[in-house]
Amino acid sequence: VKLRGPGFQPGPFPSRALAWLPPGLRVGKPPCSRFPDSPWLLWSPFLPQATPADMFAKAFRVKSNTAIKGSDRRKLRADVTAVFPTLGTDQVSELVPGKEELNIVKLYAHRGDAVAVYVSGGNPILFELEKNLYPTVYTLWSYPDLLPTFTTWPLVLEKLVGGADLMLPGLVVPPAGLPQVQKGDLCAIALVGNRAPVAIGVATMSTAEMLASGLKGKGFSVLHTYQDHLWRSGDKSSPPSIAPLALDPPDLSEEKGSVQADATLQGDMRHLALEGEEEEDEEVQQMCGEKSQSEATEDPSVGGLNPDATDSKTLQEQMDELLQRCFLHALKCRVKKADLPLLTSTLLGSHMFSCCPEGRQLDIKKSSYKKLSKFLQHMQQEQIIQVKELSKGVESIVAVDWKHPRITSFVIPEPSPTSQTIQEGSREQPYHPPDIKSLYCVPASMTLLFQESGHKKGSVLQGSEVRTIVINYAKKNDLVDADNKNLVKLDPILCDCILEKNEQHAVVKLPWDSLLSRCLEKLQPAYQVTFPGQEPIVKKGKIGPIDITLAQRASNKKVTVVRNLEAYGLDPCSVAAILQQRCQASTTITPAPGAKDSLQVQIQGNQVHHIGRLLLEEYQLPRKHIQGLEKAPKPGKKK
C-alpha cells in the first residue's frame, strides 16, 4: 500500500514508523486508516491529518518560555532540514541561529491543543503540533517559495483570520495553473498581486481532485494566518510586497488526463465561498465576480494588504533606517552625560528598544550590520560616539557628540499614549494603573463606638470618615476637656475600644492625634481597587506589593523573580514577553509558591533595573506598591 505520495508533507520528523493500534475509543485520534473487515487501525505520521481551523484565531495561554541550548538548536536544525529539504544549509542556519537569541514557548491554544512555538528575534518562526513542524508567516515572508502557494482574494483574508477554512471557490487560478500538490500537503496561501503568504493550511485533496470537483468544496484546513494571535505575538509587521512570478502557462495538450478549465469554470473560480457561511455576503460576491485576475493585478489597492511608502525599500533597508532612528532617538532623549561610560548592551536593551515605534520590532540581525558592534563602529566613524573596550571583551560608549548635526536635526516622534498593552479576550486595551484606596473595616469590638453614626460590624469606612465619626462622638458626649481643648476624656466605650487591659484605670485622657491613631489601629485594614471602566472591588486586609526578589539557581546563576502582578491588573505572560525583549534574557512563567491561582515571572540575571523602569515609568505604578527595587545592581558593579 502506498502510504505517502510525492510532494511536501506537513512536517513529520524522520524515524517515525508505522504502528498498528487496537480497537477502542481514543481521545485525540492520530491519523489512521481502517482496513475492511478489521477493527484494527493502521497509524502513520504520513497519513493526512484532519487539522482544525486556525487554532490561533483566539487568545492562547503561555505555559513556559525558555531559551534553547546548543544541542537542542542542532537537533532543531536537523529537523528543519528534514522537513524542508528545499532549504539550503545557509538558509537553515539563518532560520535557526547558532548564537542569537532563540526561545521555545510552550502554550495551550484556546481549544486546549498543546503547541510549541520557536521564537527568534522576537518573532515566532516555527510551531510544532502533534510532532509536526510548521513555518509561520514571518518565516514564509523570508522564504516565500518554501511551500506550494495558492492565491485567493483579499476579501477572503478577513474570514480566514476569523477561523474559517479556505473553500475551493475562493481560489484564483493563475495563467500557469494551480500548483501540483497531494492530499495532506502543507501549502501557503497568498493574495492576488502579492506573493507574500498570509495563511498556512493543509490541502484536503490533490490538485487533480480539485479540478475534477469543479473547484467546489473545502480545499484547505487553515492552521495559521496573518493577523491571528500567533502573528500578534511577534512584531506585528505587515506582509512585504513580493511581485508574483512571471511563469509561462503550461501546455495542457501534453498533460494526459488533465481537466480542461473552460470559461464556465474560470467564472466559478472567482466566486467566493467559505465554510460555515450558508449565505455569502452579496458585496463580496459582486467584487469577486466582477474583478478579473488581470484587473486585480493592475489595481494597486489589491496588490498588498497595507500599501506604504516603505514597501519600495527592502526589509534590510527598512531595518537599517529603524536602527539608526532608535539610536539617534536614544541619544537625544534618554542617554545623559552622567550615564557615561555606558555599556553598549545597556544602550541597546535599556534605551534603543524602548525608542522603537509601536508595532515595529528592532532586530539587528535583519539589518545590513548584523551585529551591534559593527553598527556602533559605523556611528563612531561618523564621529557621533566614541567606543572603547574598558574591560576585556566588553565595549562601552565613553563619549557622545550631542552637537553632531545628525542628533540636533533628529525630530522626536510624537509619543503614543502607551505602547504596552494587555490582552483581554480577542481585543487589546492600553494598560492604566488601578486606583487603590486604603479603607477600614469595623470589628465587633468597636461596634459600640460606631453604632451611633449608623454603622455596624463589617462596615467599610475611609480614614476621613473614621476621623469625623470619632470627633462627633467626643463632642456629642461632652468628652472634650474644658481646660485643654487638645485633650479628650475617655468614657467607658472609648476605654473598651482603644485601651489595652493594663491601661483601663491608668489612662483617663488622650490627645486628639493619639486618640485618632489608636482608633485606626484597632480597625481592621481593607482596601478598594478600581480599574478603569470597572466597578470598584473592596477586599479585606492589605494589598500586597509587587514583590521583586533575587534567587540563586543551579551553577550559581542569579535570577530575578517577580510576583503578585495580577493584583494590579498585569498579565504575567505579557510582562514576561516585554522583559524578555528589554533584558535580552530568557524568561519563565511558573506558579507562585503559596499563592493560589497566581503566577510568577522569572528572568535570568539581575534585571531589577529593567523591571523597575517598566513598572514605574511605563505602567505608572506608585513606588510604594513595588517591593525590592533597592536590589538593582549598583553602577559600576558586575550584575
List its salient traits.
Sulfate adenylyltransferase; Arc Repressor Mutant, subunit A; MDM2; 4 domains; five-stranded antiparallel beta sheet; 26% helix; protein biosynthesis; acetylation
Residues in β-strands, percent: 15-25%
Task: Indicate the mean pLDDT.
Answer: 78
At the fold tier of CATH, the topology name of the largest domain is: Sulfate adenylyltransferase
Counting DSSP H or I runs of 4 or more residues, the number of helices is 19
> Roughly what percent helix?
25-40%
Number of strands: 30
Corresponding CATH architecture of the largest domain: Roll
**Total domain units:** 4
Structural class: alpha+beta
Describe the structure.
This protein has 639 residues and is α+β, with helices and mostly antiparallel strands. Helix content is 26%, strand content 24%. The chain is built from 19 helices and 30 strands. The strands form eight sheets. It has a six-stranded mixed β-sheet with strand order 10-14-13-12-9-11. The chain has a five-stranded antiparallel β-sheet with strand order 4-5-6-7-8. A five-stranded mixed β-sheet has the order 28-29-27-26-30, with helices on one face. Helix 10 packs across helix 11. This is Eukaryotic translation initiation factor 2D. Residues 546-619 form the SUI1 domain.
